[in-house]
Amino acid sequence: MSETAAHLVDSVLPVQNIRQWVISFPYQIRLCLAVRPKIMARALDITHSVISKYYQKKVGLQKSTAKTGAVTLIQRFGGSLNCNPHFHQLFIDGCYELGPESEPIDFYAAPPPTLQELD
Fold first, then answer.
1. Contact of 83 with 96, CB cutoff 8 Å
2. Cβ distance 71 to 40 under 8 Å?
3. 61: Cβ–Cβ under 8 A, 6 or more apart, which residues?
4. What pLDDT, on the 0 to 100 scale, is given for residue 103?
5. Are strands 70-77 and 83-92 parallel, antiparallel or unpaired?
6. How far apart are CA 61 and CA 114, in angstroms?
7. Is the sign of the CA dihedral 99, 102, 104, 110 positive or negative?
8. DSSP class of residue 55?
9. pLDDT value of position 41
10. pTM of the model
């Protein structure tokens, strides 16, 4: 884990604030996620899409002109080695505004989420 973290910091993540989002799932669907990789992949797509849209809205940019970035680590077990698939998603805390050739022009930092948004 420490090698992965060092690689992410040194070579992957930009020099911007990073926010960790931990996405857990109800007990009733954890086994399904654990044994069906396509369903787990779809759940990851959905969470990434929702959080990306959240950042686009927070900074006031349109989907077509804004991009954020994320790295997701999937943890499959809880602290007591129980089946508990969940996502640790490291998102750039804001969005890059894109130019006409989809190149990043500027970065817009997002304000922290409110307690109401977290609920």
1. no
2. no
3. 95, 97, 108
4. 85
5. antiparallel
6. 19
7. positive
8. H
9. 95
10. 0.83
